[in-house]
Amino acid sequence: MTTAEFAETGERPAATGGTPGTAGGTSRKWWVLAVLASVAFMAQLDLFIVNIALPSMTASFRGAGLSDLSWVLNAYAIVFAALLVPAGRLADHFGRRRFLLTGVVVFTLASALCAVSPSLTVLVAGRVVQAAGAALIVPASLGLLLPAFPQRQHTLVVGIWAGVAAVAASSGPPVGGLLIELSWRWIFLINVPIGIAALAGGLRFLPEIRAERGARLPDPLSAVALLAAVTLLVLGTIQGPSWGWGSAATVGTLAAGVLATAVTVSRTLRHPHALIEASLFRSREFASAAIALFLFFVAFSVFLLITVLFLEDQWGYSALRTGLAIAPGPMTAAVFAFSSGRIAARFGRVLPALTGTLATAAAAVFWLVATPAHPSYLTGFLPGMILGGIGAGLTQAPLFAAASTLRADRATTGSAVLTMARQIGSAIGVAVLVALLATSDPHTLALFHRGWDLQVGAALAAAAAIAAMRLARPAARPRAG
């Protein structure tokens, strides 16, 4: 993208790092993709790698139950989801490269803190800081990626970027299982060398892109309202089982979250500089992708956590064996993720997104029907894991590519909204599963079935697939902004 094209969209490339695609930029833009994919992988891996470590953490933090340890997951998910859109908008304004590299530094230092944390409180605090760093990284990474490539390559490169994120999410359990053989602390410590390498690559290859001087900052009230809405709604859902669903604390928290949501929606519809602008959702593809990502990840987060708990608690697998048992899923996801961009470029976004959601639904149905109470890996588990890997690999790339239907100066904000939908879905999925576990015997096969029933009914077979079908672009439609 040239300087003139940036000017047309209200953006400008700064001198730092140059503009990929100009002289010498043919190879440089692929280095940009490599750096951005690596930092996105690091941030997404850490969201899911912790799942498999929860049982091991009980030995370090005696007296902590599943609901206490779930905060290691939920604190990250809540803060990440709440900060994504504010971070995305501010990155557009002050500089995407600046925000991304700051996020890498914050994330890396927080990972070191988590690795040496002496108590559960310190670990959760470290996860909060990690989440803040990840929120700076993820939307800025897509906001830097799209301008580095011509429009005709957007589907391909976003497919690679989202495919890397899909592999990261699916790789969490097997990678975690291997690292836990050393210590659960290694799942955080491994981020340090990755972060240092990503920082070096970012300083070398990434250009700076930001809004023109004089551009207005987003409405602060809508930013505060969104932060409150996401935090309160997820907090109320997570704490409902322990507080009591009818308690004043739960009802008050959820009511306050609904009120904050209403304020957010009102500012979005009425304020010309709202944090989330209503014009984003004039793109049917973008709106449908946000809905589909939310629904898919409600199910996907349940899938990841309940699979680990089932294999370890019901079948008696060790952490290492659990990780190896799950490994075919991310390996399959990798194969299909890197192909989904090409499939979407040739046949449109609907085909891979619809096929992916239905494949994951088929995996859920298989586990409901065929998984026995005793270990039967090859016939009772592996086929479902392969189907789930196909689903994870195909679904995300075409959904995230919907951000390219927005104006270039809203790519970072659009990416943040899509990622927020994914993370809120993940947090709610974990919260609902923890609520189910809190009211049942965790060692019964019925829980495994109840978790997959939630996945099938709530997201994949019905709503996510329907939403994915609306990714088809209407003919002769101007791009939304």
Could you please describe the fold and organization of this structure?
The chain is mainly alpha-helical and 481 residues long. It is built from 19 helices and 2 strands. The protein has helices at residues 3-8, 25-49, 54-60, 66-94, 96-115, 120-148, 154-180, 186-189, 191-205, 220-243, 248-270, 284-314, 319-326, 328-347, 350-370, 377-380, 382-400, 411-438, 445-469, and strands at 11-13, 209-211. Strands 1-2 form a two-stranded antiparallel ribbon. It is globular. The two termini are 18 Å apart.
Key words describing this protein structure:
2 strands, mainly alpha, disordered N terminus, disordered C terminus
The outline comes out as: globular
Number of helices: 19
Query: Quaternary status of these chains?
Result: single chain
> Looking across the biggest beta sheet, what order are the strands in?
1-2
- Terminal CA distance reads 18 Å
CA radius of gyration: 21 Å
Query: What string, H for helix and E for strand, traces the elements in order?
Result: HEHHHHHHHHEHHHHHHHHHH
- Average pLDDT works out at 78
Percent helix, as a range, is: over 70%
Could you say which structural class the secondary elements and strand pairing correspond to? mainly alpha
| Number of separate strands | 2
Tell me the strand percentage band: under 5%
Main beta sheet: 2 strands, antiparallel
Low-confidence stretches: 1-24, 475-480
